[in-house]
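Please go through this protein, sequence plus structure tokens, and consider how the sequence yields the tokens. Keep your notes short.
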Amino acid sequence: MLGVWLLLWGSAALRGRADTAFLRRAHDSSGRCTYSFTVASPVEAACPEAADGVPELRAELAALAARLSRLESRERGAGGSGPRGAEPGGARDPQQGPAAARMEAAYGELLRAKARLEEEKGRLEREKEELGRRLESSAQEITRLRAARCPPGREGPGRDTLRAPAKAPRWEPQPLSYQELQSERSEVPVSRLLDETALGRPGQEDSGCGRLVWVGEPVVFGRADSIAGKYGVWMKDPEPVAPFTRDNTWRVDTVGTEVRQLFQYEEAEQLARGYPAKVHILPRPLESTGAVIYRGGLFFQPRHSRSVARYDLRGETITAEREIPGAGYHGQYPYSWGGYTDIDLAVDETGLWVIYSTEKARGAIVLSKLDPETLEIRQTWETNIRKRGVANSFLICGTLYTVSSYSAPNATINFAYDTATGSSRALSIPFENRFRYLSMLDYNPAERQLFAWDSFNMVTYPVRLSRE
């Protein structure tokens, strides 16, 4: 009804200008419904630009079409059918439906991606907060450990006064997480230590070479207080080179993939107090607990290699390195406790040794005597003792001795191989694993005792040799 009224109104407005008027409704380029009036001129064949009344007519028709479009929109909004729905020209473009569906699907996917990103952001924020708390806790623990390890020095010029800390290089421990560890520890008077073990001054009755007949109870000298010290090696030089002495003590904590720190102590008592006089940073990381100190050098196995190297303690450089032909390494032929103990160095009264195994020996222990300056192999012996079947080994007077277990509290020295005769024999000498995890065992010929690392604890064992 609205369209008919507008048609009559438009015809009346144009009655004076034309004989016939036509109303046309169609979509424009933007898809909107438009109404057009067409009136033929009875006298003019063309429409000059300056013809009177034509611009006014066009403006009037445009305004009329706009008003009609607004009215139709209002009618549709009110629920009416409207002219657009009644005519074929008002139908939707059939291509608009699939396009709209694709747009809605893409929009939904974007919303889901946004939700996932928000969730990931929240998770990362929580992890960041947790790492911050852990870092703060570790920093507090390191501060506490430093304060506990470094008590203030005694006053006065007495003989036992500690050296000025300002002259000693600062010890910066590796960035590891620390934990408080507890275990049983025996308190032994210093007088008893000196009487029973005679540090640096072996008793006259035990001087000279012979067969091992007795191993005493372990004596604790110090304890590692970080997880890096569960396994390790500590040692003294039986034949030191100036400026070092037999009192100098050395230590390496071997837990980790980049073990480079060699701690130097002026004496064993300083080791017991828990802070070094100097820290050497090795040019190459070492592997496991097979290192020894001998004639002013640290002899060790570089990580992931079948070589042995000599680190000069004075020059602080590697002066020699040599590959051990065919030697297993990095877990091929370790001791029974593992720990990549494939290559183990040892020192006795006769010199420097390397203990290992090869594929040719089928896992049996192989011994080689080394030149301490060039690391050339002087002589080699192949034993019938399987390396994986023993927990550790050491040499005394050219004889190899092995330990039956690294964890049994009442273990034994169970085999001996004499390089002078090339023969082996079974033994049953009691050996105590007080802390149930023996990871290092070496003999010091100058002090005539065994140095061991037993689950964080640095201990010694007095020994007795027969003169047979």
In short: The chain has a mean pLDDT of 79.
